[in-house]
Design goal:
The chain is α/β, with parallel strands linked by helices. It has 12 helices and 21 strands. The strands form 5 sheets. The chain has a 9-stranded mixed sheet with strand order 4-3-5-6-7-8-9-14-13. It binds 5'-O-[hydroxy(phenylacetyl)phosphoryl]adenosine (DLL).
Length: about 425
């Protein structure tokens, strides 16, 4: 058995050999055990027994979220239900929920994948891992929990919510690593400050493993300043496992894919063509060793790129860039593609503007109007109308030059944007008929 670090330092050719062997087994298992995959492979003329290289996988058809929905709940399971030990589901915010099933081995691999985040944070048995992603069907809570256990940490299963109690436990237990969404981490920090605490001094946190939603670099530095810790970005999705598909190391220079478990391609979302390393496109994932619900060329709708070259940390698993957002979150404003996280990045360069915002979509005649509602810091003098107007104007003009398109800006009072314990709702669509 190799140690975690040995696996993470394997020569890349060896990782590719593991991937090829695993992907061969995956496509055959899918073909032989799942009626849907058999039909889809046959229709596309893809012969799973003839796969000889990872490039050959390009002959396989894509799997989409719609396919997962159409086969709800068990249609894509490749093992008998008696071998399935746990079930999770996506929140279903964009439609019917999708289901993830895990065999005992899938659960162990999941724990190992998330534990890499703790390894990247130079953590282990001496750490107290405070998990405040939601437990339950959402993969965040239990995924981080299994990761904490696999890394040997003392793991505290807080789940999300009851923020004042989170703060008490963080202080009293001396938690060193916190796992939750970045927006919930910000809410915990802000609540602690309101309670008269200084999260940088009163907590013992040294790392936060945050993900499940996009967050800008400026949002990250704001968090790091407040807690005096380091934020590592963790990516994952219910359809392929949950958190731990890719995680940032201490270099914060991209998220290392767990390449011994996932084979990644980046495609042009319009043509489906595979793009070379370095180019931005949609991430497509194939399971290398998933047993319960293996996926072949699953279109994640998440936009990223493979970062070319090696990471300064010396680990060999390739990195994806931090995610801009999903193809379905992308706003098309008068023909220009804009992700909410880009708006957040510009907004966060202004002093006095907090990390809380919402983007409202309305319609005026036949025109879509995009309004950024940005909340100011609690100590901002909100009664000074002239200051507010001036700030609005300056943000508006910065947006125009950064995004090449005009959006409306409205400064709102502290605490007026709803706080979330899980994923933040950044875009509110008020257009009729949408
Ligand atoms: O959000 C799994 C997860 C839990 C990841 C905890 C990280 C931490 P779903 O609810 O199925 O699963 O949502 C998956 O969330 O396709 C992305 O669009 C988005 N997402 C996840 N991680 C990130 C991230 C979990 N680090 C969807 N940055 C994905 C940006 C992310 N977006």
């Amino acid at each position: 058995m190799m140690t975690q670090e040995e696996v993470l330092h394997l020569p890349h050719e060896q990782i590719e050999a593991i991937q090829l062997e695993g992907v061969k087994k995956t496509v055959i298992a899918c073909y032989e055990n799942v009626e849907f995959h058999k039909r889809a492979f046959d229709e596309a003329g893809f012969d799973p027994y003839a796969l000889e290289s990872l490039d050959d996988l390009q002959k396989a058809p894509f799997l989409t979220k719609q396919d997962l929905r159409d086969n709800y709940p068990y249609g894509l399971f490749a093992v008998p239900l008696s071998d399935v030990k746990e079930i999770h589901m996506s929140s279903g915010t964009t439609g019917v929920a999708t289901v993830g099933g895990y065999t005992q081995r899938d659960l162990e691999i999941w724990g190992d994948c998330f534990a890499r985040g703790i390894t990247y944070a130079n953590g282990g048995p001496d750490d107290i891992c405070h998990v405040c992603y939601g437990y339950g069907l959402f993969t965040g809570g239990l995924g981080a929990h299994y990761g904490g256990l696999a890394a040997g940490c003392t793991t505290i299963p807080m789940s999300a919510g009851n923020t004042e109690r989170q703060i008490r436990v963080l202080r009293e237990m001396g938690s060193t690593i916190i796992c939750c969404t970045p927006s919930y981490a910000m809410h915990i920090a802000d609540t602690a400050i309101e309670m008269g605490l200084d999260p940088a001094k009163d907590f013992s946190l040294r790392a936060g493993i945050h993900g499940a939603e996009p967050f800008s670099d400026n949002f990250r530095s704001d968090l790091e300043k407040k807690f005096d810790y380091k934020v590592l970005d963790v990516y994952g999705l219910t359809e392929t496992m949950g958190p731990g598909v890719a995680i940032e190391c201490w270099e914060q220079d991209g998220l290392h894919l767990a390449e011994d478990h996932f084979f990644a391609e980046i495609i042009d979302p319009a043509t489906g063509k595979v793009l070379p390393d370095g180019e931005w496109g949609e991430l497509v994932l194939t399971s290398v060793d998933r047993e319960a619900v293996p996926v072949v060329r699953y279109r994640t709708r998440d936009i990223t790129r493979i970062i070319p070259g090696e990471c300064a940390c010396g680990r060999t698993h390739r990195r994806i860039d931090r995610l801009h957002g999903r193809t379905d979150d992308m706003l098309i404003i008068r023909g220009v593609n804009v992700f909410p996280s880009q708006i957040e990045d510009v907004m966060k360069t202004f002093d006095g503007v907090s990390s809380w915002y919402q983007i409202e979509l309305t319609r005026k005649g036949s025109l879509d109007v995009v309004t950024l509602k940005a909340e100011v810091d609690p100590d901002f003098d909100f009664d000074q109308m002239a200051t507010i107007q001036n700030l609005q104007k300056r943000i508006k003009s910065a947006m125009k030059s950064a995004l090449s398109v005009g959006i409306e800006v409205k400064i709102v009072e502290p605490k007026s944007i709803p706080r979330s314990e899980g994923k933040a709702k950044r875009v509110v669509d008020l257009r009729e008929g949408e």
